[in-house]
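To whoever is on call:

I kicked off a structure prediction for a single chain this morning and the downstream step that reads the tokens threw a length-mismatch warning. I double-checked the sequence; it's 361 residues and nothing unusual in it as far as I can see. Pasting both halves so you can look.
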Amino acid sequence: MRLGVLTGGGDCPGLNAVLRGLVRRGVLEFGHEFVGILNGYEGLMEPRLTMPLPLSEVKGILPKGGTILGTSNKANPFKYPERVDGKLVEVDRSDVAVKRYHELGLEGLVVIGGDGTLSIGHQLAQKGLNVVGCPKTIDNDLSGTDVTFGFDTAVGIIAEAIDRLHTTAEAHQRVMVVEIMGRNAGFLTLEGALAGGADVVLIPEIPYRAEAIVRKLKDRVTRGSKFSIIAISEGAYPAGGEVAVAQKAEDIPGRGVVRLGGSGKVLADLLAPHIDAEIRVTVLGHLQRGGTPSAADRVLATMYGAMVLDLVRDRRWDHMVCLREGRLQFTSLAESRKERHVDVTGDKVRMARSMGISFGD
């Protein structure tokens, strides 16, 4: 078969490992031909944004971060940004994507991405295209799967960053606030904080109260610890308050979602009048999603890429691969439209509380 493949949304460690697993098994076992769609869905909307994907193109890319196909989170065919009368507006140009699919002679399309990319894939499947998916996000917030590749690598980077902040926080007797990605789910912050030994963990699932955090910080000083590490998710917010937004959805045509940012500064401003220690905010930002993937992410991504071809073989279109209860399985692409959140009564939160970690509530 002649299959197109694209990587959409934010980049993520392990994307190239998926491509390698997909192409190697596809060529060697099934004799498929692959067409790389460049820059996410933009490659289905604009001409000359494709490349052949023979075995030679995926050689040596297993440890490489990013994606050799490029990516974009601003090229939704159903809300495509176009300039009308000098103003950027969102227009439904999905028929262009369908036409481009057929012009390329594709018999199937593999979409690799998070909720946005997979949701668009599901919509294209409703328009008659043969689409299969592979879940990806460092946020680990897709309901269709227990684990997404990229998450393990990002947690490792967060833990290392907190390790490094410990030494400078202790030297200067400061409160270090670390702002971590994750959007509306706290998986990255929770696990990165546990791995790095943070003292306060603030996640979107548990609105925080500044006075509770102040008590925790003062209690640490009383006990002889004159510094503290606070890990805060970009989607965390004070009880009765709102999530910090860096850019509204309407200001980013074609993207469809808000850009979060600033939760660390909001918290620092709330705490500053009530404690004596200096507060410093570190925003990890895109450091969390860059660099070489961990061994665990390489294995998971490779397995996902290879397993996608079972869906193609069985003509199970509008489905994606997933990992549930430790086993590789399949589920509907419609599952990608649902968010998964931290279980606030689960073992990780419960054990963290038992060890004296504050969640600000």
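Update from on-call: the warning came from a stale cache, not from the record. Cleared it. Sanity check on the structure: DSSP finds ten helices and 15 strands in the chain.
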